[in-house]
Each structure stands twice: as structure tokens, then as C-alpha cells.
Design goal:
Cytochrome Bc1 Complex, Chain D, domain 2; 0% strand
């Protein structure tokens, strides 16, 4: 019996040691052990490594950051403006801007020339509209609905960059 107890004790001790060792192992490293920056390869074969003045980066280098920026066009602003128009303007000015309770804003019967330039039109719209809650929309919404009117009335080319800072240079036709 004494012989059996020592084997059991030895097995229990062995299992406890395994559990302790399993709990004490270090966590796997999340930091790579290799350098993250590229260093030029040193070789005599120059066909493998581009010269330092080459516009082609070595294959182990990240690509250069993009220098292109997306420019919003009048057409893109007008798409958003159409939704604003439908929600806040169509009730008075008609679903297509043809007029209703309020005057026509789109089409041949439009008299936007009274405002002279797009920035004066924007100023009027943003301070006086919608008639039941003047000035209640966000600035971007007023800009977009103005872009919508300019595009729908063929005052601006839809592909032009949308730049409200240049609204003063957009003349409204007679």
C-alpha cells in the first residue's frame, strides 16, 4: 500500500509541475523579431537593387503615399442637393422645381438673374428658406441645394469642381 501511495504522489506532483510550467510560459511575442525598416541590400549585382536616385522603390519598401485628392464636382453636390430639395423645397416649388405655391426655380420660367451671382442666391436661400423655418438647414445643405439649382438650370457644367468660394464668379443668366 505504501508503494502505491508513492506512485500516486509522484504522478500528482508531476501533473502539478506540468500545470505550473504551462502557466509560467511567456506569452508569444506580437513584435516581430526582424527590423521593420528596410535597409539597402549590399550586393555587387546592381541589377537587383535600384540606385538611390531611382524613382522605383525597392520591393520591400511601402509604396509612397498618394498625392491625389478627390474633388467634389457640381454634379456630386447636386445629387445631395436633389434630396435636400425634395425634402424641404418641393412642397412649395414643385417636385421638379416647376413652381407651385412658390415660384419656379428650375426651367424656362425661372428668374434667378434677379440675384446676379450664385453667392447672392445662396445668401438669400440660406437666410430666407425654407419659408416655414428660415435658416434652419445646415450650411452644407444650403450649398448643395444651390448646386442643384445651378446644375438643373444649366448655369454650371456638372463636371466642374464644386467650390463655393467661387460662387461670386458664377453669373446667373437672364
Amino acid at each position: 500500500m505504501k508503494h502505491n501511495n508513492s506512485w500516486i504522489s509522484l504522478i500528482v506532483l508531476f501533473l502539478v509541475m506540468l500545470l505550473v510550467m504551462a502557466g509560467c510560459r511567456p506569452e508569444p511575442s506580437t513584435t516581430p523579431s526582424f527590423p521593420l525598416t528596410s535597409t539597402p541590400a549590399t550586393t555587387n549585382n546592381t541589377s537587383q537593387v535600384p540606385p538611390s536616385n531611382s524613382p522605383v522603390p525597392p520591393s520591400n519598401s511601402p509604396p509612397p503615399p498618394s498625392t491625389t485628392t478627390t474633388v467634389l464636382t457640381f454634379e456630386q453636390a447636386a445629387v445631395n442637393g436633389a434630396a435636400v430639395f425634395a425634402a424641404f423645397c418641393a412642397g412649395c416649388h414643385g417636385a421638379e422645381g416647376q413652381g407651385g405655391i412658390g415660384p419656379a426655380l428650375i426651367g424656362t420660367d425661372v428668374e434667378l438673374d434677379d440675384y446676379g451671382t450664385a453667392d447672392v442666391l445662396l445668401g438669400f436661400i440660406s437666410s430666407e428658406m425654407p419659408q416655414n423655418a428660415p435658416g434652419s438647414l445646415q450650411t452644407q445643405q444650403y450649398l448643395e441645394v444651390t448646386a442643384y439649382l445651378l446644375v438643373k438650370n444649366n448655369i454650371v457644367w456638372p463636371g466642374n469642381p464644386f467650390d463655393p468660394a467661387k460662387f461670386n464668379g458664377i453669373r446667373l443668366p437672364d
